[in-house]
């Protein structure tokens, strides 16, 4: 842990240099406003006073990156692991863990959680949000249950969209390039009465990966159309009302293997090759803010969301698959059932030594002229509808110049409706009571404490807390010492699933019926405990007058009672028997060293130990990024980025991105043309071995007109 010791020494040196820094602040920073972090504790705070590490991705950085998706922006955040399950399914995890899902991180859009309640993941491809509408992203790197509830175990990504008052006029954009990239965007902002409005329409499309490791064509393209209407009303000098409506419609291709569900593969005919997912998302939110005085603010927010996922296809299997003996053996010993299937596929008899169930299955397979070998086809689905209603009251009170108190109460109702996953509907209600106290003990010391009490119908009650001491060397330079406790509630799929597939409209009756249940089933245990995280952090944040911002973090995190088994219907065995321990160091440097140049560097070192073997390969020990933004004059600009990780799912990742743009002034209009090139510097598949492109280079162009 040489890196940890060296960074600890650096923090010690910075504390010894406090008098020098104070002099520097007096000379150079008089009268300058401090930058603000908006979402870490729900209070507006200077970066040096935040009880944790926060990365800010502003609009200039979003534009310079050329990124088409939010997960690609997360490569700019130290410690973030960006993975691809397939071309239309991306994942983001802080410090690794499950690469296929993001179950331990909260994601907010203007304060609205987009973390799905039933299957507990974030559909990055299906968010009803265009990149062009994002104003800023704040990433709290660490547990933040005390501010945002039980799914903010490892971090919070808080996305803020553009204020309609600052979005007047028309903006049109088009992106086209290799791999089927074909994106478009249009927005119109205007004012009327006491309100400002912005209407945005956008679409996104690409073809995903080119082929698998077996040189088969990969079906993982995506297509989406999105709408967002945002408004803000200044009701009077003390009241503001904001509201928003958004919707998304699209489809994501699903790679299909004709016999992937078959008990005895290779014998059944091909099923339906269209296993694609059709997705529709809807949301509406309203927020009312009232300043009762210069020291007191009340805020009431309510929102409703609905996720609709339709995935229907026709599949085939042997009539043997619908017998009670096969279902019983699947529950008792899935590995033995796989062995039985292999022997039957090879035309061999099942020995009596395999046990009575296995022996009976073998006899049934061959008796009566092999009647149970007849293929049966039927309609099957993974359809699921999820809804969320959330109401929250927040009170912010300045008790004195040195003491601020934030408190709040919220109620949430989550519902999931799926015959395949839950055999109907499943509901959950969550009550939350939260608070945060910020106390400036003196000019240099800030003591902060926070707590969240949460009552969850499906998971029970929990109380989490955080305490932090910030030593402000100056208002712009601070050391922080943070201890946090956080929890993650088991989600509906982990704890309460009743996973059964029913085939309808059978090609031939089974037991005299036109429908039948498939042999593979899974039931959630129903008594899983919450995951518990204890986190310790020492850090430094500095905002220098010559444009330099530095954040350094040392961390030691422990996750106990971890739920880590794969969520597969044939291998479903969820429990609280796992753990994960992480420690390491991170740094982030953002330096605007001339009026035309900006340099950004990040680095993370993660040392880890875990009981879940798959997690060991899904955490990169070394990762980082480097970026240089430059304005050349005459409307020309460029940005160059490097992203790297040593091993993510045992695969190295290195990529260089170059963006060159030219801006033209056309009277009352502005036109920007840009060229974006991504060059992979490694020869690995992306996250999984089947995720392959024909070429390591990707090129696309964009044109944006504003008037």
TrEMBL record:
UniProt keyword terms in alphabetical order: Cell outer membrane, Membrane, Signal, TonB box, Transmembrane, Transmembrane beta strand, Transport
GO cellular component, one term: cell outer membrane
Cross-referenced Pfam families: Plug, TonB_dep_Rec_b-barrel
GO biological-process terms attached to the record: siderophore transmembrane transport
Region (Disordered): 201-221
Similarity-based family: Belongs to the TonB-dependent receptor family.
Protein name: Iron complex outermembrane recepter protein
Origin species: Pseudomonas guineae
